[in-house]
Description:
Shape: elongated
Helix content: over 70%
Distance between the termini: 34 Å
Number of helices: 4
Mean pLDDT: 90
Number of strands: 0
Radius of gyration: 17 Å
Low-confidence stretches: none
Largest sheet: none
Structural class: mainly alpha
Amino acid sequence: MRLTITRKKVDLDECFPEDIDQYYDLATQYINLTTEDCSHAFKLSQKAWVLADRWAAIAANAGKLAMNKDKKINKTDLKDYCYRKYRQMQYIHEHCRMIWNKGEDAQKEKRVGK
């Protein structure tokens, strides 16, 4: 059974539509990851690291983005929003690395045992 994440609309999502799509795509792949799929876990780990860096960069530029006259964005709210996305991606990165590492260890044990 494939699990999906229900998107909850947040006003700031509209400012970063592509980043949000990538975030939810990766999160959906993560919740459907199994412990046996260590090669996919490694790929997810890499993608999550890149997205974590992206959200950190957005948070670092929160002051500039908040000064945009077209959009009324509160700098503190934007930093908090980006930090939550960053932490989730960082957590996914770390957990996927652990799954990949355990899978690699298990494969090594199988080769040695033969």
